[in-house]
Amino acid sequence: MTTALKIDFVSDVSCPWCAIGLCALEKALQRLSADVTVDLHFQPFELNPGMPPEGQDITEHLTQKYGSTAEQQAQSREAIRLRGAGLGFVFRKEGRNRIYNTFDAHRLLHWADLSTTQPSGLQRALKKALLEAYFTHGESPASHDVLLRVVGKVGLDVNRAREILAGDQYADEVRELERFYLDAGIHSVPAVIINDSHLISGGQPVEIFEQTLRRIASGKVED
Description:
two-stranded antiparallel ribbon
């Protein structure tokens, strides 16, 4: 008999640790596949909600935001690249050139989660493809051309996505969800919420995800 778990993966497509966390979570779920069924949803979080569409130079941005030097950023980038490689995710060796606004990407992810006319599981496929577009290929998640190409790649309706991007559909819903998670105390991502009660923070190793999910599924963690 399997145990059903609801998982809300709160994250941003411009967050490298979210890519690492998702890969680790998926590997943990593979190990638990005989015991657990999962209802997985990706929820919006913007690390830089005020970022203009054209973005900002990444070195300048990280220096302003965290006070880090170019050398420190290079060391961090290499550590992240190696973590990703160990999980099967490819980060560009040269890293990101710019940081971009991700609001439209979140609108499309919200649509993909709600759509009843598309095959199930495409929200996860879209999330992974957006992370790959940005971190592996250095493409802008603010570019509508990039977003539409990725939508088509994973099998979602490109014409419907184009209509969404041309207007403001799902903007209010995404902002409401972002406020909800901020009000709930989520200020860094990834934040992995299980059954609306248990939080796993950060890009944890596969073993941490596996152990925690196994304990929750077995009822050994109190709500």
